[in-house]
Amino acid sequence: MSVALPMIMAALIAPLPGIVDTAMLGHLGDVQYLSAVAAGSTIIGLVIWSFSFLRMGTTATTARALGRENQALCQLLLAQSLVLAISLGLGILVLQGPLLSLGVALIMPPEQALGLAEVYTRIRIYAAPAILGTFCISGWLIGMQKARAALALMVLINIINVGLDFWFILGLNMNSEGAAWASLLAEYAGLFAGLFIVFRMAFGNNSLGTNSERTAANTRWLLTQLKQLSHYRELFTVNRHLMIRTTCLIFIFAFFTAQGARQGAAILAANAILMQLFFLFSFGLDGFAQAAEALTGEAIGGRNETTFYQICKLTAGWGFAMAAVTTGLYLIFDTTIIGFFTDIEAVALLAGEYFFWLAMVPLTAVGAFLLDGIFLGAGQTKHMQNIMLIAAIMVFMPVWLLTRDLGNQGLWLAFLVFMAARTLLMLATFWRINHLGWLRQDATPTLNADQK
What we know:
Blueprint: H1 4-13, H2 16-26, H3 31-47, H4 53-67, H5 71-94, H6 96-107, H7 111-124, H8 128-143, H9 147-171, H10 175-204, H11 212-226, H12 233-261, H13 265-301, H14 305-332, H15 334-341, H16 345-353, H17 355-377, H18 381-403, H19 408-436
């Protein structure tokens, strides 16, 4: 729990700015602001959060390098990940025009929220390099089992974001535009703080040498490795699988938002509230998954299968307990929770109508979240990719097509079945690999970049 607890706390506060945004805008008396942020956040998710695999890939590879006690490789993975993240972030800025236009075309925000959503996305898009860079920094800290540092970084970003939310939205009456500026400034503050933390941790106390000549030699070696594309092989292999998997997941969320938008601003806003509660649970559960990712990665890297199984059992016990508690709290306090987010009667009534679907999600999705972390740590990213493709294409879409006449009820049913399918498919795959042996089935390329 020394690794898991800080990760759970960091994960639980991750959706805090979104919750605060939703609650503030939901009490302004006009649904257009909440609808604009719901649509705009989804568009930004399509463009930027599709690259969140950078965090997972960095954690998994770093944890296995740590298990092999290869400090030089840990440093190299940090530098490589940051180069990749900043390059992708700058590429997003160059292509922002067509990317945002595509996002708007896919989501199709309601007419009264369209202008506000476009302003929101044009501001938020400039955070792309910062967000992707922070993904890698957080991933590296988790992989190195520096959970408290990752927590401190997340706390800093969220404190700045929430503080600016109050100032911009309530103090300056900037509404949805204020929410965008608050997120942008907080992300860059987090990036610079994160860079300071990891570079001081990785290079400030160089354990690979005790004199300036050795330090200079290590720096030259690192720069040489960064210039050689062949040395990015592991990151590219892992991230390729995770990119496809993450793109499918982002597509499901975007499709969900788009279908809600097509049913009107009130349903879009109600779904936005329910999704914030889903993210609260999912980010909290991600704390267990990220801890499992770091610990199982180290166990696999160190070829310790016994420790691997112990981590799996501990993660499952805590994760399923959290899911059961979350479902119970949602069912008991549904009206109170909805009232916190909005006092717009039409939106509150719709959120209450669909609240049962949300309450059932934790129990159906818990297995998928936990096994994501275990599969990542063990290097089984190809299975994650294939399972997500099957669940999205062969489960979610057919169920939605069969139930689309039910409107938003059918949409939530399809989402629930999608989560259940992911859990069942990952459990089946877990038992199959368990029978064959996790160490023998490690499909990740060998990390062999040693200090020269």
